[in-house]
Amino acid sequence: MKETNMSKKFLLEFFKDCKIEDENEVLTISSIPVDFEDFVGKKGPYKFVFDVKTHERVRDSEPIMQGSYFLLSIRDYLENKGQTSLLELKIDPKKIKLDKKLKLLNTGSNLLYEFSFMSNYQYLNNKKQSINKILIKDGKIIDIDISKIKTQRGDQKDVIINNSTEQYELAKNKLEETIKKEIKPIKENLKIKLNKELLRVKDHYSKRIREKDEELENCANKIKMLESKRKHTSYERDRNILARLIRESIERLDMLKKKGYRERLKIEEDFQIKDEVEKHALSIKNNLMNVTIYYYKN
Fold first, then answer.
1. Which residue has better confidence, 244 or 101?
2. Cβ contacts of residue 84 below 8 Å, gap of 6+?
3. Residue 259, pLDDT score
4. What is the bridge-based pairing of β-strands 150-153 and 83-90?
5. Which of 154-163, 180-189, 251-260 tops mean pLDDT?
6. Do both 134 and 217 map to the same domain?
7. Is residue 170 located within the same domain as residue 245?
8. Residue 134 falls in which region: left (phi positive, over 0), alpha (psi -120 to 50) or beta
9. Do 289 and 271 share a structural domain?
10. Which tens digits make up the pLDDT trace of 89-116?
């Protein structure tokens, strides 16, 4: 359920400027930008569903599950597609006076920078995406739901946009803090799984080394036992048989020693441990989707 909610939230954010209908467990998206339709090779509308039963019930639906085609396509579409847009906020001055958060707009400059980042997480056989939006005004991160304020396309003649590098660095730092919180449960789960696998690998090779040690010890004990028997055997035929068995056992013992099984198994163990560590590593890739600069007229 949590995975479904994350995927749905991701789609709603990506298609926020399109026409969206959310009914009967089906997310229908229409009025889709032509460049995205061309990119995925399919015209809208899209009917997104989040479980197999609904997919079987709804004709021409697109299943949204881990690693699904559309989620991967959106990721590829957004990678390095950072764009900048300018929008004018249409705010009722009365609302600014009444709303504590909106009062922030009456201080300092009349510019707000919104940085939208897409983060891709990959670990084991899992791939996840999340979108984080960070709103900055006068070098400070502010908590205002800008999506609820009416906007219109801005005019560059209305504003003077300063260098946004400092704002971007602040947004990146905030993104790192946010991601740390997002990945904390993932990293804890990976650590538990990795420790379990490392214990399994170490137990496996410890057992194999122990078996080889026992085989070596048994072979040496066998030689001692055969030599003792040979000393106390008076029949020539039995002595010859025991002598042959002793030679074969000595050859077996020498072979075990020459193979250096401890060193070989240790190399195998180290390789398996390294492989498990790599498999349980968390890969994170962040991409700036777009920068939206908002302004308002006092």
1. 244
2. 290, 291, 292, 293
3. 64
4. antiparallel
5. 180-189
6. no
7. no
8. beta
9. no
10. 887 766 665 566 676 666 778 888 999 8
Q: Report the alpha-carbon distance of residue 30 to residue 50 in Å, rounded.
A: 18
* For residues 61-83, average pLDDT: 76
End-to-end CA distance of the chain, in Å? 45
Structure tokens at 1: 């359920």
Question: Residues 154, 34: one domain?
Answer: yes
Average pLDDT, the chain: 83
Statement: residue 1 has pLDDT above 60: no
Q: What is the DSSP string of the chain?
A: -HHHHHHHHHHHHHTTTSEEEEETTEEEEES--HHHHHHHT--S-EEEESSHHHHHHSTT-EE--TT-HHHHHHHHHHTT--EEEEEEEE--HHHHHH-TTGGGGGSS-SEEEEEEEEEEEEETTEEEEEEEEEEEETTEE----GGGSEEEE--GGG------HHHHHHHHHHHHHHHHHHHHHHHHHHHHHHHHHHHHHHHHHHHHHHHHHHHHHHHHHHHHHHHHHHHT---HHHHHHHHHHHHHHHHHHHHHHHHTHHHHHHHHHHHHHHHHHHHTPPEEEEEEEEEEEEE---
